[in-house]
What we know:
Layout: H1 13-26, H2 30-42, H3 49-81, H4 93-96, H5 123-127
Amino acid sequence: MAERQPIFPSVTPGTYALVEQVCQAQGCTQSDVVEGALLAYLAPRETSDRDTLLFQKLERLEQAVQSLVPLLEKITAYLAAQSTPPPPTVARYDQLYPELAAPAGDDDDTAVHEDPPPQPGGWRRLLTKKRTL
């Protein structure tokens, strides 16, 4: 028999009752039951079919993403090669409203007229006298 090291676990009364039932049903000692439970809990488990399917799907996704990289590089190269269109022209006022443009022969409308001097407003207007000459 292999050398064994003692451990002293404390369990709840419900767990102890379950261990006793398993020992009586299988005809083995408490040490055998606890050791088997610990090995099942601590040992790495084998991969299942579900894990294998998940890994296969992950590999397919990785391949799909890798196949997208060259396509995206082609798209960016195509977009970079395209020249930018010229900016749109902004219409001038005379282009928008040709009927309002001044006739070419009328010089009176283009002459600069001086504005009359501003009149004082408010109380200042009432308190100041106009000088007459």
